[in-house]
Task: structure prediction
Amino acid sequence: MRPRTRTLQATLTLAVAGVLAAGMTVALAPAASAGTTLRASAAEKGRYFGAAVATGKLSTSAYTTVLNREFNSVTAENEMKWDATEPSQGRFSYTGGDRLVSHAQANGMGVRGHALLWHQQQPSWAQGLSGSALRSAAINHVTQVATHYRGKVYAWDVVNEAFADGGSGGRRDSNLQRTGNDWIEAAFRAARAADPGAKLCYNDYNTDGINAKSTGIYNMVRDFKSRGVPIDCVGFQSHLGTTLAGDYQANLQRFADLGVDVQITELDVMTGSNQANIYGAVTRACLAISRCTSITVWGVRDCDSWRGSDNALLFDCNGNKKAAYTSVLNALNAGGTSTPPPTSTPPPPTSTPPPTSPPPGTGGCSASVSLNTWSGGFVATVKVTAGANGTRGWTVSVALPGGSAVTNAWSATAAGSTGTVGFTNVDYNGQLAAGQVTEFGFQGTGAAPGATPTCTAS
Ligand code: XIL
Result:
């Protein structure tokens, strides 16, 4: 039944590509519809509407009846977390996650992967590690799990909840944070190398408006985009109380404006007279943003919720639709960006970029490397600076110690893996103006390179 999932994913990809190719200036008329389920209505708008699933409940028909009828995306509530997938170091267990993937494929649903690295729900062996041993174990975890699920998840929460609450706008203290501030970008790079097709997300809570925490995350995403760290999306958990911040949508929009998708990833709302309104407002906010690609609620029925007696979900414990459900469905049917027909080709660009005269090249270039090392491996980040005449392309040669090998590279193509390895620019970063800087990186096993790399411009 895999083709059904593929078709859905292809349709969504086309829809998003079409919207993006059309340019943000093109206002698409909201398409009213009369979808009768959340999944049908969301799919019409080119979005996923998902639920967190405890795989143990997949054998309960009262549960799967609602799940299969209403949702076209699933997230493992616990089964893809570190403690579940690597219970002892280097021994991986995918039983629960694989079961969910099979269910999704059989029912035309996409899968959101959750979560590769998090300070909670770590296996006890990882909790006992620190420094380079933990860094190495964490990157290996990302690589192994993302490789196992390659092609089966449309997005990954690569890093979950790394920012502190309160007014600091900074990182939360954790064993992972203590391995060095660059642990997040190292994780994203490893995830991209392992599964180039998945959207890579940063996910957090208490980010439901413009506040110190969401601004700290915003600054990180902006920095990642400027340096070429592979990040594609930001997840807003949206565990909500009895009010919704007035700038909820504006906050999503400012992230989308950085060039990342936004996703509502763990929505649940405190019961009460405002519950249905808040659900509706969150849905409208997402639909108003073409880059808001999915909404996931954190459970199916109230009694499935981690929030216990908050009755925070869309269905009561018997699977009956609540007022909040109707509010969401109406919001889905009322508006948002319409999905271009899947067969249409993307429209041509609205304006042709002015011709740029190629830089003369031959002005040389220089390269410098910064390293993260641990016993048995390393990640190298290489900065390439164009010389006086700019570059049309460049190749950086790195001499590896004997016994070391490159295992993956990003933003450059590696020729070979051992000895002296040449890294050549990819399409978008070869042409540099005089003095302009770009970065690429690679990961390797064994000892890190010691000598300064050489750069040759063309
Ligand atoms: C929760 C699950 O729902 C519970 O079953 C588990 O006991 C604890 O974790 N933020 C997250 C989710 O990113 O993974 C959490 O899920 C809820 C908070």
